[in-house]
Design brief:
132 residues; 3 helices; five-stranded antiparallel β-sheet; three-stranded antiparallel β-sheet
Length: 132
């Protein structure tokens, strides 16, 4: 029986690998969305992104920065939060693949004061980068 416990608590066992909530490549984003108890992965090509909105929301007593990615493929926005695994991939991908977004976009977002209830337009395809 002690072999069972040794194996169960052994540090040599690899941790289970879960895919990130957000990943990015040259073609677009892959974002996990919950469908009940199951994650469904949605593919969002960079060329389909029309608008990126940001707002803060109280989630279990903590303010969370949330991004709504609107596309010309669907009426519903894809939600990406600052707590999602792979969030940095979203920021880096936006800088690399969305026209008009400059290298300082992530730093600009970090410095931006968005109060709860306020919705800020961060990107519009027609206008390019906006961090007003």
């Amino acid at each position: 029986m002690s072999g069972f416990w040794d194996k169960l608590f052994s540090k040599r066992q690899p941790a289970p690998q879960c895919p990130p909530d957000v990943s990015a490549d040259a073609e677009g984003l892959t974002v996990a969305e919950m469908d009940g108890e199951e994650a469904v992965y949605v593919r969002v090509p960079w060329t389909s992104i029309t608008t990126i909105l940001a707002h803060r929301q109280d989630v279990f007593g903590v303010e969370q920065l949330r991004f709504e990615v609107l596309t010309d493929l669907a009426d519903e926005a894809v939600l990406i939060t600052e707590d999602d695994t792979g969030f940095e991939a979203f920021l880096q991908g936006a800088v690399s693949f969305l026209p008009g977004i400059g290298a300082s976009w992530a730093q600009d977002l970090a410095a931006m004061q968005i109060v709860p209830g306020e919705v800020r337009v961060l990107y519009r395809r027609e206008a390019g980068y906006s961090a007003e």
